[in-house]
Amino acid sequence: MPSERGTVRSARAGVTNAPPARARLPRSRRSVSEPAVPGSCSPWILMYHSVAVEEEDPYQLTVSPERFAEQIAWLYRRGQRGVSVRELMRARARGRDDKLVGLTFDDGYADFARYAVPILQAYGFTATAYVVADLLGQENGWDTEGPRKKLLTVEEVNELAAAGWEIGSHGLGHQALPGLPADVLAVQTRQSRRLLEEVVGGPVTGFCYPYGAVDLPATLAVRDAGYDYACAITHSPLTGRFAMPRCYVGARDGGWRLRAKKGRHRLRDAVTELRRVGKERRT
């Protein structure tokens, strides 16, 4: 799970042959390395998991409601507004995302509705919850050493979507995608989307890779399943619309640390783009 240096348990993409970006292609034919907006840097997206009170949290997934409120207040004081990734992408397409930051919550913990939503609503913020389609109403059994946390139920997901919160897919059973056969990748991406669309009664256009683990076949499967974008964690050769990097936020992060993480995100974004341009010139 995430740590200060990215993510403890995520697998980094080792693929270096991502295809070049192509403009104005239909969604199903988009290059996986296509920027969120051509010629632009990656958007700043914060990655949360659980907002709750836990005495022990070996994976560093949990932020207390008090600390979370402080972090959201810091964004607000800086003139920034937290939004769902869906809203962020739409704003970027119009060139109106200067003061926006994406807020994401992985795994679909029930405490998102109990603790995070009221705080976000108080500031007029929105967010995206990435839920595990086959495990709604169950627990986070994949975290073998962490505390048991209840997941959002079908009814809660439906209510959140009806209230305007973006619901995205986090796969079927929180299974890492790299290394899976093509037919299994198709099931993980397409079936999870279909199930969630039945729950929310509308389109599900965002995907988030379990554990942040991503490789080229996974991005291709997500693209071909009809998603508009996908979130990863780290910068990589695949960074683009279907592998957008995010900044992990934990219980230790106050204003100064968040500011530093934003700066580090921009620096890594610049380095990734320079490497991409250099590779294109050599080919």
From TrEMBL:
Major localization listed first in the record, in broad terms: secreted
Compartments, record wording: Secreted
Residue ranges constituting the NodB homology domain according to the UniProt record: 99-283
InterPro entries: Glyco_hydro/deAcase_b/a-brl, NODB_dom, Polysacch_Deacetylase
Source organism superkingdom: Bacteria
Keywords, comma-separated and alphabetical: Signal
Stretches the record annotates as Disordered: 1-37
Record's protein name: Polysaccharide deacetylase family protein
Organism phylogeny: Bacteria, Bacillati, Actinomycetota, Actinomycetes, Kitasatosporales
